[in-house]
Each structure stands twice: as structure tokens, then as C-alpha cells.
């Protein structure tokens, strides 16, 4: 992996209109580190969510777009940011128009005043990674949570991955419906399974490549005395075995045969049992060589932080863009050594970092090094002047 510096951009100005708790917000920012401080419910996470919408998908809360519009507002919202990049200034915007009576609102994306086809277009200008409290149980929770986490890791380096995953989900739903309603329609099922196999192998291959690259980067850059232990990673599932042992074309053929042979079983189950939708991301605590889900709560938190930091490095290496890093309440349960180690690691990443916390003392050591901002309902102002 190359360790050469990559271009780093900075959000110089963030404007929110009728987004969540903000009727109107115009927030200038000047530093690489940004600390948002305020009571629970003040609106700190809303700011991170707004930035996360410049990635494909539904943002860090995975909410419906209509739910992001301010209650009592017109039913629309707009987010605009001015990006100060090494190669010039750009203005990016996204939002929705008021919902019509005949359907749901569509998302609007603009780059320098020109309409973009989708949020995927933003990937030319910025990448975003994040860590939120709901991920604290990632290693103990169901496999579906880890698949979503993995797909977000892939999406940060491959902006088209989300479209492939969505297309696969639609194809699988179509196959399930045909198995339920017309199980003897072999021609229709053959056509659907050809589409499912092509998409499934593409999704599984993208996941495998990201995991392998991330594992290699972690191995290359790990430090034994780091406050954040290194992780070892792998994928588990029948489709992942196919990808690991066969060329892509042969893997597609084999998966189509599996789908054909398992039609009766899948019809009885009401879902397709083999495929990327059944894979699991396996993570181990590297220094102790134990499954992550058997580590202590504190060890799991530190392991997850280390994994996200490594992923930010991978994004920079693969995309050539230092990513924005969004950390929601990440420092609250860290001891002073790990907190200091986190801040040092964040500064070394190069990209702009936005953090939240209820207690201003969590960020005391960043005074003079970060924009310290006080968040209250609908308003953000300077906490102190460095």
C-alpha cells in the first residue's frame, strides 16, 4: 500500500434548510478537527447525518428522506456545503422537494449549480466514513448488521457498490415471488437466476476485494503498542467460498446451478438461502487471536475504532481522496490514553473530522487545534475562541 499523502478537502461552510431540528443554519468551519458539544437531543448527530448524505445511500441513520424534513416545515429540506479542495472550491447540494400527493419526493443532487444524476456523482469530490453508537454491538449482533457495515466499507471505495446491492435485492425479491406464484415457470426462473448470479458474484467479489485490501493494510500498518488493537478479518458463506476458489465466470455458473437445484428448498423457506445475502463478516481481536464477539465491551469498542481508522486509510489509498470522518459520541467511553491516541490518529489521517460529545471536557486537549462548537436546538455557535 502506498503511504504517500493524498489530497485533503475541508468543508468550509455548511448550510442546512429545514433539515431535522434546523430551520436555517449557516455554519462556517476553519479547521481539520471539528468538535460539536451539546446536550443529548440538541442536534449534534443531525449535523453528521447531513454530511453523510453526500454518500450514496440513506445516511448514517438509514432514515427515509421524508423523515429528515423538519417537523412543522414545508416538507422539503436542503443541505449545501462549500468544499475547499486542493484543486479548487466546489459547492455540493442535496435535498428533497415537498412530497406530492401522487408519490414520494425524489432526491435532488447538485454540483456547482448543475444537477447530478445521483449521490454517486459526489464521489468525485469527497468520501465519507463514520462511526456511531449503534455500531457498538456490531460484533455481538446479527450477521445482517455486519453485512450492512461491510457494504458501507465497500461503498466508500466503490461508489457503484450500493447500486449493485440494491439491484441484487430486487432480483432476489423477483425470484422469491416467482417461486411462490409460478414455481413451474422454468424459463422465467432461468432468466431471473442468470441476473441474480451475475449481480451476486459482483457484490461478493467487491466485498472480498475490500476485506482483503483492508486486512493487508492493517497488517502493514499495525502497531503493537497502539491503544486500538488490530483486527483480522474474513468472510463466511457458500458464495464467498465460490469466489475464493473459482474464476468469476465459473463461480457464476456454479451459483446458477445452486439456485436451480435449491428452488424447492428456497420456496419452502420463502427466501433464497444461498448468496451474498447470507454471508457474514468474521472479525477477530488480532493481539489476542480471539473472536471479536468474545472480547470485553471495551476491547470491542477499541477494535471497532481501529477498524474504522484503518478503513479511512484504505479509502484514501484506493480513491486518492482523504475521507471525511464522522464520529458520533466516540470519545465518551474512552480512557484518557485511548482518547489521546484517537485524536493523534485522526490528525494523521489528513481528512476533516467531525466529532460529537455531550461533555466539553472530552475535547479540552483539542483547544487551539479544533473548531469547538456549542450545539443547542436549532443553533450552533463557537464554544470558545482558541
TrEMBL record:
The keyword ATP-binding appears for this protein: yes
Keywords, sorted A to Z: ATP-binding, Cytoplasm, DNA damage, DNA repair, DNA replication, DNA-binding, Nucleotide-binding, SOS response
Domain RecF/RecN/SMC N-terminal stretches: 11-365
Signal sequence, start to end: none
Pfam families registered for this protein in UniProt: SMC_N
UniProt cross-references to HAMAP family, sorted A to Z: RecF (MF_00365)
Function: The RecF protein is involved in DNA metabolism; it is required for DNA replication and normal SOS inducibility. RecF binds preferentially to single-stranded, linear DNA. It also seems to bind ATP.
Protein name as annotated: DNA replication and repair protein RecF
Species the sequence originates in: Microvirga vignae
Amino acid at each position: 500500500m502506498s503511504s504517500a499523502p493524498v489530497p485533503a478537502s475541508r468543508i468550509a461552510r455548511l448550510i442546512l434548510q429545514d433539515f431535522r431540528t434546523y430551520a436555517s443554519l449557516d455554519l462556517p468551519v476553519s479547521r481539520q478537527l471539528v468538535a460539536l458539544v451539546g446536550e443529548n437531543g440538541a442536534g449534534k448527530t443531525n449535523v453528521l447525518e447531513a454530511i453523510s448524505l453526500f454518500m450514496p445511500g440513506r445516511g448514517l441513520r438509514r432514515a427515509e428522506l421524508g423523515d429528515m424534513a423538519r417537523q412543522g416545515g414545508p416538507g422539503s429540506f436542503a443541505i449545501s456545503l462549500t468544499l475547499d479542495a486542493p484543486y479548487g472550491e466546489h459547492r455540493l447540494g442535496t435535498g428533497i422537494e415537498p412530497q406530492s400527493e401522487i408519490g414520494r419526493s425524489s432526491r435532488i443532487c447538485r454540483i456547482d449549480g448543475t444537477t447530478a444524476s445521483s449521490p454517486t456523482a459526489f464521489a468525485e469530490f469527497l468520501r465519507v466514513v463514520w462511526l456511531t453508537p449503534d455500531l457498538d454491538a456490531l460484533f455481538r449482533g446479527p450477521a445482517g448488521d455486519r453485512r450492512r457495515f461491510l457494504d458501507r466499507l465497500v461503498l466508500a471505495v466503490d461508489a457503484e457498490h450500493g447500486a449493485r446491492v440494491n439491484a441484487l435485492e430486487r432480483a432476489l425479491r423477483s425470484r422469491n415471488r416467482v417461486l411462490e406464484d409460478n414455481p413451474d415457470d422454468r424459463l422465467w426462473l432461468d432468466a431471473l437466476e442468470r441476473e441474480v448470479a451475475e449481480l451476486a458474484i459482483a457484490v461478493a467479489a467487491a466485498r472480498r476485494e475490500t476485506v482483503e485490501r483492508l486486512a493487508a493494510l492493517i497488517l502493514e500498518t499495525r502497531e503493537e503498542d497502539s491503544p486500538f488493537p488490530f483486527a483480522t478479518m474474513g468472510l463466511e458463506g457458500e458464495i464467498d467460498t465460490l469466489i475464493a476458489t473459482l474464476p468469476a465466470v465459473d463461480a457464476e455458473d456454479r451459483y446458477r446451478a445452486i439456485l436451480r437445484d435449491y428452488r424447492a428448498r428456497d420456496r419452502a423457506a420463502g427466501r433464497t438461502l444461498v448468496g451474498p445475502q447470507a454471508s457474514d463478516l468474521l472479525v477477530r481481536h488480532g493481539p489476542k487471536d480471539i473472536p471479536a464477539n468474545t472480547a470485553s465491551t471495551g476491547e470491542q469498542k477499541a477494535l471497532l475504532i481501529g477498524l474504522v481508522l484503518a478503513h479511512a486509510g484504505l479509502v484514501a489509498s484506493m480513491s486518492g481522496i482523504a475521507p471525511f470522518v464522522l464520529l458520533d459520541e466516540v470519545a465518551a467511553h474512552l480512557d484518557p490514553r485511548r482518547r489521546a491516541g484517537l485524536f493523534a490518529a485522526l490528525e494523521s489521517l489528513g481528512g476533516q473530522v467531525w466529532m460529537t460529545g455531550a461533555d466539553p471536557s472530552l475535547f479540552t486537549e483539542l483547544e487551539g487545534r479544533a473548531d469547538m462548537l456549542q450545539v443547542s436546538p436549532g443553533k450552533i455557535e463557537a464554544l470558545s475562541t482558541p
